[in-house]
Amino acid sequence: xxxxxxxxxxxQRAWRGFLDVHAQLNAVINRQLQSTTGLSLSDYAxxxxxxxxxxDDGSLRMFELGERLQxxxxxxxxxxxRMEARGLVERRHCADDRRGAFVDLTPxxxxxxxxxxxxxxxxxxxxxxxxxxxxxxxxxxxxxERVLGRISSx
Length: 154
Fold this sequence. Notes:
It comes from Nocardioides aromaticivorans. This protein is mainly alpha-helical and 154 residues long. It is built from six helices and three strands, in the order ααβααββαα.
């Protein structure tokens, strides 16, 4: 029988701290986005993907969007529908795949992220990076890359 290798006190502190930081950052950022721009954090996440260099002219397949955000298909579809109703994105059927669809950024969606991004970046910088040394930032980047590498190898 295999025994459990429990987290020690420092590992437990680090793990719980990470979970708390993640939850609280998401909550604060979501509230700030909604109060200043009317966008939710989910809206913002989709708009970021559609404006990334990996998106072809502000367009991604629905499944690609889901993969990038690590969201279930139904969550992507519901969020895109909400955003489509507000004119931020448009859904376009894929000529090559009758079941597939593209999500296209609209001019309204581009204007929304361009307006939201500066305050969002300021908040992230203030809450997450303020007071951190360059070495701490580099160490965090190395650490997260290592964890992501372990996840992707599974």
